[in-house]
Amino acid sequence: QVQLVESGGGLVQPGGSLRLSCAASGFTLDYYAISWFRQAPGKEREGVSCISSSDASRYYADFVRGRFTISRDNAKNTVYLEMNSLRPEDTGVYYCAAERQVVAGCSTAKKTYAYWGQGTQVTVSS
Fold first, then answer.
1. pLDDT of residue 39
2. How far, in whole angstroms, is CA 26 from its chain's centroid?
């Protein structure tokens, strides 16, 4: 059974850091591009960052560039999102998604991805 499980969310003060993990089971991530999305209450789900299967390409949305870092450890079948300098507007449910790599690069378009995790809550508040 193909499954993605996010973890690492929680409550953090503004300026703080969290590292999210996206662990895959039932398939190996080696040939999959991975993207992180987030959804705040009452808002659309938006793309945050993505990484290609070979790690040759990484992309960050403008609102996280310079603060968040995406990485992957294929040996552990896991993708990470390191989040620093967190702001209240970063609050939301964070999801990872996977799609088998077909073309070069990666995308943060929701329609690209077939496999999704259940999400992990991130709350940035004092």
1. 98
2. 19
> Helix, strand or coil for residue 72?
strand
pLDDT tens-digit profile of 75-117?
999 999 999 999 999 999 999 999 998 888 999 999 999 999 9
DSSP state letter for 14: T
Contact 56, 84 (CB under 8 A): no
Q: 56, exposed or middle or buried, with CB in 10 Å at 0-12, 13-18, 19+?
A: exposed
For residue 45, the tally of other CB atoms under 10 A from its CB is 16
Across the range 27-52, mean pLDDT stands at 96
Q: What is 24-70 written as a DSSP string?
A: EESS-GGGEEEEEEEE-TTS--EEEEEE-TTSS-EEE-TTTTTTEEE
- What amino acid is encoded at 77 in this protein? N
